[in-house]
Design goal:
With 228 residues, this protein is α/β, with parallel strands linked by helices. Helix content is 43%, strand content 16%. The chain has a single domain, classed as 3-Layer(aba) Sandwich (Rossmann fold), CATH 3.40.50.150. The protein contains nine helices and seven strands; from the N terminus they run ααβαβαααβαβαβαββ. Strand 1, helix 3 and strand 2 form a beta-alpha-beta unit.
Amino acid sequence: MNTINLATRSYVKQWLKYIKYKKVYSKYKEHTMVTERDYIDNLGLVAGFKNLPGAVVECGVWRGGSIAGMTDLLGKERSYYLFDSFEGLPPAKDIDGKDAIDYQLDKNSPHYHNNCTAEEAWAIKAMEKAKVKNYFMNKGWFEDTVPKFKLNEPIAVLRLDGDWYESTMTCLTYLFPMVQPGGLIILDDYYVWDGCSKALHDYLSMHKRSERINRAYSAGCYLVKKDE
């Protein structure tokens, strides 16, 4: 009986979490192109780091739906930093793979989203909807904004959605060192775009890092930074 009760309690607990995360998705769904299932799984992953102090940084925010949703799990008192060109994706290169190049050529695809272009006002609206005061917009190409970024606290959660090799490598090069040991690093398109996965593999190899790559959801992976 005790085993049954424990199983029932666990099921109820998981169901309540699912309902909670589903409500967060509904709140921000007009601000994200992430699927409902992946969005919920991302929230479940991030929730495990809610007690880790530090800033939250997202590179590639589109309309701001992912980082706004994370504030509901990580708290409103943190500092949140949003990086995006708000001009869409830069041109894919050979290192990004044929699928990436074909994606940008197929402008009639329902997944094209105007080459992932979104006005900055959408992201601002999402953060205002989240009722976060300490958020900072960093508009521009990653190669121009990320190297100049300075923080007076460590990063607790770093979410990268830069798609291509150079964008992802730039963010890893300058921001990975700012993540505190035990911090969470999410790469949204690891299982989608070759450039994203190549950049992560190259970075870990170049710096002889031993972090494990784990599946976060259908499209993305995550790492927990080690103290090395």
